[in-house]
Amino acid sequence: MTHRRAVFLMILVTLLWSTAGVVSRHLDGARSFEVTFWRSAFNALALIVALSFMRGTALWGQLLRAPRQVWISGLCWSVMFTAFMVAITLTKVANVLVTMALGPLITALFSRVFLKHHLPLRTWVAILVATLGIGWMFGHEAGGGDAQSLLGVLVALAVPLSAAVNWTLLQHISHGKGDPEASDEAPIDMLPAVLLGALISALSVLPLAWPFQASMHDLSLLALLGVFQLALPCLLVVRLTRTLPGPEISLLGQLEVLFGVLWAWAWGGEQLGQATLVGGLMVLGALAANEALALRRRSH
């Protein structure tokens, strides 16, 4: 795969990811945990079909014999799938996406703490600026007395935190520091972790989603989200990591914030508040500057 084609596909991935917020605004009766259940369930079904086609019957053996790293990653995926959908039922799509944009910076911080990776000064500055941006949003939501919106932002924070744990784990494994008892075996296959995450997410919220209120219209939209907003882009990203470097994927991935906010504004009827706009610009500006400087340094 050429670099240009990989960049194009990564942009397509962010477009697919960004549709969740605006689609959820057009649901009839499904709410909160039921939305999460159906999206995760359809995601799991799509991944079962795709991975069974790719791996055959060996897939189920892999799941049964999955090492602890796969289960930890699966738990991280489940938190990401669950917290995102719950958050957008509590607050604006823009608030959720801006909060999620903290992911790469939290990952860099986790890499420093747990993997002892050196962080340059520019990354520490970016972390500080982004934290101030999220703090600005928090302060506005809390000062405005909108407890539900504030709760939504707090729930959304679970997404970048879980993503940071997941990515740090994957970095740990990719550097040959996985299970020491299995050091002579083949590298750990982490793709089944996505399927485990979808299954855990669906099963964990099922009691809270009952009784179901989704209409056939809702189910069709949630099926589209499960297949095209989650399963397909997750499989594509795994393939793209072979071509694109991590910083470039991270930077391109933040297009989800831009696309998601635009969709919610154009077709979801959401208006951007001043606090969201200022906080979002601080987070995205810090992230873009940090990644751009990193790529420039590597090019030299």
UniProtKB/TrEMBL annotation:
Q: Which residues form the EamA domain?
A: 5-137, 151-287
Q: Which UniProt keywords apply?
A: Membrane, Transmembrane, Transmembrane helix
Q: Name one GO cellular component term.
A: membrane
Q: Which residues cross the membrane?
A: 37-58, 70-90, 96-114, 121-138, 150-170, 191-213, 219-238, 274-295
Q: Which Pfam families match?
A: EamA (PF00892)
Name of the featured protein: EamA domain-containing membrane protein RarD
Q: Which organism is it from?
A: Roseateles toxinivorans
